Amino acid sequence: MECATCKKPATLACSGCKGATVLEGDAPSVHYCNAGCQKANWTQHKATCRRLQDRIVLYSVVEMAQRLFYVNRELTWIYLDIEKVEKTSDRMETTWPADYRVFPSQLVSSKEDKNSILVFLACIEGYMWTVEFVEGMLKGIVTTSTHVVYKTKNDKLRTRCYSMTTPIEEIVRDTGGITHEMLKVTLRSGEVFAVDITGAQYGYNEPVTPWTKYQNDRILFQYPESGQPAPRPYRLLQVNDYSLQKLIYFCKKMAGDKTAEEAIPFVFAGTLKAMNLRILGWQGNEKLSLRDMWKLPEKTLRVKLNDLIDFVEWSFHGIVQYPWSTVNGKRLATENKHSWVYGKK
Ligand SMILES: [Zn+2]
Ligand SMILES: [Zn+2]
Questions:
Q1: Pairing mode of beta strands 91-95, 158-161
Q2: Which ligand is nearest to the CA of 4?
Q3: Residue 174: which of 188, 162, 186, 160 has the closest Cα?
Q4: Which terms are listed as keywords in the entry (predicted)?
Q5: Cystine design at 87: which of 35, 92, 168, 274 (Cβ 3.0–4.6 Å)?
Q6: How far apart are CA 11 and CA 35, in angstroms?
């Protein structure tokens, strides 16, 4: 590594943009031999640094949104039960009878496989979730966000379900692509990204991808309804009775007449309520609001995000109150009414 200013050997990386995901076409990351050289180069580096910082925040927030989504799906795995999972190189087949039961972590061999089942047919829910996070946490850095509905191509994996009704079988068929939904965001730096937290059902686990790459690799064609601005937030992150009602209404509308799926709005709102509680705590104790989270240094942001995820997982046991709740795939057993311990596998 040579110093960006004096070209001598350098070991100090700029702390502002260190850790940004490196993308095709990026200039090599800057290093300095001392603080003086860094200062001398700041005018030149400033724009790049700000652009990379925005990128770091986008990746962290979306990664958190995805992790929380997985947590939410697993802890609320009450509307579909999997009996069997069979996986070949590009296909995962599952059989789901109608009973409610715990997510069967023991049937899947990797975290990736598990995630593909957790988000199977969950792209609308995932999209709503993402809008909420992007609107709530990235307001300062995302300038536009649009809804994208498209037909997939190059699926690395097809997650399929065998005991569901005809309409589902029609959606998940062997030939042609599958209809999928996600969010496209433009940052104030001009960089454009695809934000897709439910891509694991097609074998794509990364939640953020540069838009051009995503478009080339994954989109067969976009539907005409694509390209609309993302709806102004459902405001789940600032849950109050009104927005909760709105959410319940929306989820019920999505779920149609299926009684089992009526459980979704309750638990979906539960996650957000738990998050909201934690964030309100931050606001009170540390004067940290959700809106300002993205301004935190990367390390602090990461600590906060992990804290939030832990809190949501923990809170869920109070909300769901089923003896078979799992955390990170580990089954929990009740010790007494209000405490949980990790059970033996
Ligand atoms: Zn130098
Ligand atoms: Zn920098």
A1: parallel
A2: 1
A3: 160
A4: Metal-binding, Zinc, Zinc-finger
A5: 92
A6: 11
Q: Distance (Å, rounded) from C-alpha 159 to C-alpha 72?
A: 19
Q: How far is the CA of 298 from the centre of ligand 2 (A)?
A: 12
Do residues 57 and 294 make contact, with C-beta atoms less than 8 angstroms apart?
A: yes
Tracing tokens 């995000």 back to the chain, one arrives at 305
Write the pLDDT tens digit of every residue in 165-202. Answer: 433 333 334 445 788 999 999 999 999 999 999 999 89
- CA–CA separation, 23 vs 27, rounded Å? 9
Residue with tokens 């931050």: 282
Q: Which two tokens stand for residue 20?
A: 């940004």
Cα 2 to ligand 1 centroid, rounded to whole Å: 8
Distance 51 CA to ligand 2 centre (A): 9
- Residues 43 and 49 sit within 8 Å (Cβ to Cβ): no
- Are 16 and 32 contacting, i.e. CB atoms less than 8 angstroms apart? no
Helix, strand, coil share (%) of the chain residues, nearest 5: 45, 20, 35
- Whether the predicted model's global pTM rises above the 0.85 cut: no
